[in-house]
């Protein structure tokens, strides 16, 4: 096992740890905004570490560039959907089942979607 | 890493299969339209991963682009159009039981059929592999689609154009000549506008690459067209542009040029290659490339128009459930 495999194993495992932590957060956090925070951490740090770990295994240049491009696109998509979801929650659109998330935002007039 | 004993890669399929089953059950059980649509989109992406695990990359790409992408958007706009049903009584118990029994019956029959297939299942893989070299294509899926079963592919591309005509015919008389407005859902946020500026150049490259690579690697006009259509709908959603009005000559030409060129080349085959949709020797690859290029364009136009919806009058694009 050369140093590249050690690097891959370490970084991908660390990334997987972030994934687990993020999904625990998704299941346990009380309201939608903090759940989204947990998920966006998975997207950025978790996937970032996994991709960083896979880089030594990829072929130079195109394999590596593809992996990096993949990460950038996921960052872009994740950031955008996070912003849009948060905007929808602020506007009172969206159907949160738990009263905790509705109560956590003072002045949150629950208008209907449309 | 040959020196490290790795577990069988198929173990990774167990959680994947379980996730698919659980998500499918949740999809059936959920009562909210919008939640069901979002779940269905995630389901499409999971199914795409399953196709990758089964080695069917072409199918996986189509499923990801259509089932996970455009279909999700189409269903979301449909759910928004319908609104949340309120105060509607649940269907009677015997009806629910009947539907459940029918579904279980269909699933059971399918399971019996699949499980009773001999291994390997009867297929034409050997026949395709034997004649693939005559098409000069490296991707056997492309060879089947554009050469061996070209009639099916031709009819499919005609169906897409017909679907747009059917959709347009749902327009009220007064709205004829207007542009589709289904995607005009409120004011787009700045994040969506940014995405709609950054992603389309990338999507354009990916789409053209999928078409070009489709000759020898997984990909092809359908996947490429779906990616291009997704970019168009993203820009329409962000109001960086608007779908063309139904009387736009350019749009109509784009819609029919794919099937038309396919049909003309096919008819020319009667003279040049002694068969409808036959390709004369030596010209096979160029003709196939021309067909796939125009088909990519037409698929993109058709899918984008299908998501954009029928033409509608300004401000009249979201009728409530009661009014419709």
From TrEMBL, chain A:
Coiled coil spans: none
Keywords per UniProt: Membrane, Transmembrane, Transmembrane helix
Transmembrane segments: 6-26, 38-56, 68-89
Domain of life of the source: Bacteria
Keyword Lipid metabolism listed: no
Name this protein carries in UniProt: Monovalent cation/H(+) antiporter subunit G
UniProtKB/TrEMBL annotation, chain B:
Keywords: Cell membrane, Membrane, Transmembrane, Transmembrane helix
Domain MrpA C-terminal/MbhD residue range list: 19-83
Transmembrane segments: 12-29, 36-54, 60-82, 94-117, 154-171, 192-215, 221-241, 253-275, 287-308
Source species, domain of life: Bacteria
Membrane topology recorded in Swiss-Prot or TrEMBL: Multi-pass membrane protein
Range of residues in the leader sequence: none
Keyword Cell membrane: yes
Na+/H+ antiporter MnhB subunit-related protein domain sequence ranges: 194-307
Record's keyword annotation contains Transmembrane: yes
Major location category of this protein: membrane
Subcellular location(s) of the protein: Cell membrane
Family: Belongs to the CPA3 antiporters (TC 2.A.63) subunit B family.
Protein name: Sodium:proton antiporter
């Amino acid at each position: 096992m050369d140093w590249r495999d050690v690097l891959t194993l370490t970084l991908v495992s660390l990334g997987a740890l972030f994934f687990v932590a993020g999904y625990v957060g998704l299941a346990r956090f009380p309201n939608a905004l903090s759940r989204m925070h947990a998920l966006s951490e998975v997207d950025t740090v978790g996937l970032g570490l996994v991709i960083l770990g896979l880089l030594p295994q990829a072929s130079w240049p195109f394999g590596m560039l593809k992996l990096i491009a993949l990460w950038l696109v996921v960052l872009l998509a994740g950031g955008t959907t996070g912003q849009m979801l948060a905007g929808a929650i602020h506007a009172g659109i969206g159907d949160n089942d738990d009263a905790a998330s509705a109560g956590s935002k003072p002045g949150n007039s629950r208008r209907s979607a449309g | 890493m040959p020196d490290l004993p790795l577990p069988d890669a198929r173990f990774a399929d167990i959680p994947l299969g379980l996730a698919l089953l659980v998500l499918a059950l949740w999809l059936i059980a959920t009562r909210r339209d919008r939640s069901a649509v979002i779940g269905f989109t995630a389901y499409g992406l999971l199914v795409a991963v399953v196709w990758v695990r089964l080695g069917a990359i072409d199918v996986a790409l189509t499923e990801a682009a259509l089932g996970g992408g455009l279909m999700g958007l189409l269903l979301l706009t449909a759910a928004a159009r319908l609104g949340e049903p309120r105060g509607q009584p649940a269907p009677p118990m015997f009806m629910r039981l009947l539907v459940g029994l029918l579904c279980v019956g269909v699933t059971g029959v399918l399971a019996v059929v699949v499980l009773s297939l001999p291994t390997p299942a009867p297929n034409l893989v050997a026949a395709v592999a034997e004649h693939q070299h005559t098409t000069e294509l490296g991707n056997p899926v492309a060879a089947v689609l554009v050469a061996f079963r070209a009639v099916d592919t031709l009819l499919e591309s005609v169906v897409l154009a017909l679907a747009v005509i059917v959709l347009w015919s749902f327009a009220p008389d007064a709205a004829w000549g207007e542009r589709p407005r289904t995607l005009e859902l409120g004011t787009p946020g700045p994040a969506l506008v940014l995405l709609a500026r950054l992603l389309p150049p990338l999507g354009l490259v990916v789409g053209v690459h999928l078409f070009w690579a489709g000759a020898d690697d997984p990909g092809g006009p359908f996947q490429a067209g779906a990616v291009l259509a997704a970019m168009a709908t993203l820009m329409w959603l962000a109001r960086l542009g608007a779908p063309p009005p139904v009387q736009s000559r350019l749009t109509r030409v784009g819609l029919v040029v794919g099937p038309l060129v396919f049909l003309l080349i096919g008819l020319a085959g009667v003279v040049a290659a002694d068969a409808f949709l036959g390709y004369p020797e030596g010209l096979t690859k160029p003709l196939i490339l021309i067909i796939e290029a125009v088909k990519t364009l037409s698929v993109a136009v058709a899918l984008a128009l299908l998501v954009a919806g029928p033409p509608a009058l300004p401000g009249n694009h979201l009728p409530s459930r009661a009014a419709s």
